[in-house]
Amino acid sequence: MKQILQKYRTLPIVARATIWFLICSIIQKSFSVLTTPIFTRLMTTEQYGQYSIYLSWTQILIMITSFRLDYAVFNKGMSKYEEHKDSYTLSMQTITTIITIIIFIIYIIFRNYINVFTELTTELTLLMFLQVFLMNSISFWTIKQRYNFKYKSVVLITIFLTLLDSILGIVLVINSENKGIARIVSYAIVQIIIGTIIYTYNIIKGKKLLDFKYAIFAIFFNIPLIPHYISTYILEQSDKIMIQKIVGINKAGIYSVVYSIGNTINIVTNSITNAIIPWLYRKLKNNELDDIKNKLFSIFIFVISIISVFMLFVPEILMIFASQQYYEAIYAIFPITASVFFMLVYGISATIEFYYNKNKFSMIISGIAAIINIVLNYIFMPKLGYLVASYTTMICYAILTIGHVKYTNIIMRKIKNKVLFNMKTIYTLLILVFIIVVLSDILCKFVILRYIIVLMFLIIFILKRNIIIQIIKTIKEKT
Fold first, then answer.
1. How far apart are CA 396 and CA 91, in angstroms?
2. Which of 210, 241, 267 is the last residue of a domain?
3. Which of 157, 185, 210 represents a domain boundary (last residue)?
4. Are 202 and 326 part of one and the same domain?
5. Which pLDDT band holds residue 476 (cuts at 50, 70, 90)?
6. Together in a domain, 149 and 249
């Protein structure tokens, strides 16, 4: 332990910050995973659906009111206006405040029509506006702290938010008859408390509420990217809202739980993606394209293996996470988990596009995938049931992956006269993942056979441990 601490103290601030930001991400996702079994047993499917739909509409409102100024443009501003980070942060906060007020006035005028569409009461929507009004400030503050490598304050706030949300949520749900509302209120209150403190702090530090130079730069930079952000969100969240509208809120609650379970493996894949980006940037900078090509294939196979093992344990995982009323949706978990692999592949492709500043295609392919997702859900959900949404999502993520990989190859061919992805290999991997989904679906009821296959995977991992160790070393490489 002393050696580990001594080695940690010798690490540069960038490395220490990276470690702690990764820990923050794991803490947030882990608590979400750990508390899900509690809430699914305390709440009915309809109550959980009410909470999940509130979350979905909250994310939509955040996307509209923030104008996604907390995404790429904020990082760009931190670099462009390095000497005026506090002023830039406050200007972004002021812009989102103005947008939120405008949207709020529109809501007040048309609230009866909007409430019918969202199926949320005026009281819940007002709570949502107050929450979103303050949440944007948390995003800006967090990104600024990350940019300055001030990881201690981010860690403390993250842990406080996560613990308070979990504890307060459990307490209010246990002691309330309307458990769906109780969970919504507990979630909103925590965000409002922290948001108020940080909103005030940003004003004190920034001093000048709005600098038009920053506002003009940020808005014009973000306008071309808004269709991409909207399309990505539609692809991620539209399923739940469409299930709510077409089938019912209780089925939306069931789907939200299994969607969370299927996305659990995202903790692993996101960590892999975040870890290999520095390595990828260095290889691109040094023009080591063949090494990228070879290592990425190994990483893809490694991730598919992890996902396959996860799918074999899905029945047991669902029993831990949820009560029997959620078991009907078990078959949706397999395609949702498969989608995580597609996210990994297209995320790496998009990283390469951003490296060469070739990101305009992102909005086109994202828009196409989002439209296809909505159309397929609209056609097949009334006929085949709400679980079909998981398969349409998987198909659309596969389309997104193929589009990004092909575009990345076009970019590399123009710039380096080489391609990074063999399309035959990519198609083979996609087909392999589809086959694994089907097999997992079939094997779901055969416990002994599933365990035998898991044992076979374990033996392969042991026999191929040197290759796996090399892959892990690649993932851990730093710039």
1. 37
2. 210
3. 210
4. no
5. low
6. no
According to DSSP H, which parts of 44-121 are helical? 45-66, 72-80, 85-118
What local confidence, expressed as pLDDT, does residue 418 receive?
Answer: 85
Report pLDDT for 60: 87
Are 420 and 290 in contact by the 8 Å Cβ rule? The answer is no
Lowest mean pLDDT: which of 141-150, 177-186, 253-262? Answer: 141-150
Which residue in 155, 159, 179, 158 sits closest to 169, CA to CA?
A: 179
> Whose CA is closest to 454, among 441, 443, 464?
443
> Residue 390 CB: number of other CB atoms within 10 A?
25
Q: Element (H or E) spanning 221, and its range?
A: helix 212-222
Cα→Cα distances 408→22, 92, 103, 338, 392, Å: 27, 32, 38, 22, 24
Which residues form the domain of 440? 226-476
Number of independent structural domains in the chain? 2
How many CB atoms sit inside 10 A of residue 125's CB?
A: 20
pTM, entire model: 0.80
Structural domain includes residue 195: yes
CA neighbor of 428 nearest in space, from 405, 453, 460: 405
Nearest CA to 348 among 386, 308, 394, 292? 292
479 pLDDT tier (thresholds 50, 70, 90): very low
Burial track 83-98 (b if 16+ CB lie within 10 A, e otherwise): ebbbbbbbbbbbbbbe
Cα 341 → chain centroid: 13
In a domain, 138, yes or no: yes
Query: Residue 151: which pLDDT band, with cuts at 50, 70 and 90?
Result: confident
Closest to 309 (Cα-Cα) out of 430, 468, 453, 434? 453
The mean per-residue pLDDT over the stretch 142-152 comes to 81
CA-to-CA distance for 279 and 292, rounded, in angstroms? 9
